Amino acid sequence: MKIRTLIVGYVLALALFLFAQRHPGSSSPTGFRAVVDLTHTLDARALAQGPAEKPVASPQQFGTRIDAPARFSRGLWTVDQIPTERLIAPLVVLDVSANIANHPDYQISVEDIARWEHVHNQIPLGSVVIACTGWDSRWDSANDYRNTDRKGTMHFPGYSPDAAKFLVEGRNALGLGIDTLSVDYGPSKDFPVRQYTLAHSVYQLENVANLDRAPATGGMVVVAPTKLESGSSGPVRILALVR
Q1: What pTM was computed for the model?
Q2: How many alpha carbons fall within 13 Å on the CB side of residue 161?
Q3: Is the CB of residue 155 less than 8 Å from the CB of residue 104?
Q4: What is the average per-residue pLDDT within 24-47?
């Protein structure tokens, strides 16, 4: 009986040892210790982001979404044509939330990027850069999120054209994202950031969520849009993989 007990104990110990070797610590099989969902749930509240008196015909424009280069530039990639290798990339979270409190029309500057790089080192070439403005805290209120004044002009932060140009040409960004309705700030009339980035085959991610839970650098991002044939925009699931 003692020998049998020893054998059973040995087998259990061996099994636990082999399991621990295959699953060290709490890391997932991918080698990342956590996954952060950067996506808002697309529900009736998300669809209500449009004016209440004008029901939204398509959910593509609401919730967390992707704009493909073809949105403003014919002949460039549609959503289903974006090369898959551009949808998995190093993630950079550019936190500018401290600048937003009293400046809803804030435009992210090259100086903001320089300050980020001073702390975290140069943005890796070929990254997806997403700005954390803290605006997603307003998501539960369509009025607060759109922040429209009496003249119908929306007010929320976005990128400055110079910052977008630096990220595209100086850091070879594959995608540009933000936790607001648009990469251009609310009062914009001609959308220079959107037009410039899309014309350079850089896709855009808008209404991104939970950026305060993602690492500033060192993580990876998985961008998984619905594969809409010939679509210029559509819903997307965004996952941050944390090392």
Answers
A1: 0.83
A2: 6
A3: yes
A4: 72
User: In this structure, what token pair is assigned to residue 147?
Assistant: 């922040």
Neighbours of 205 (CB within 10 A): 25
For the CA atoms of 196, 198, 200, 201, what is the dihedral angle to 10 degrees? Answer: 170
- What is the tens place of the pLDDT at every residue in 222-236? 999 999 999 999 999
Q: How many residues does the chain have?
A: 243
CB within 8 A of 143, min separation 6: which ones?
none
241/32 Cα distance (integer angstroms): 6
Non-local CB neighbours of 39 within 8 Å, separated by 6+ positions:
63, 64, 208, 209, 236, 237, 238, 239
Residue type, 127: S
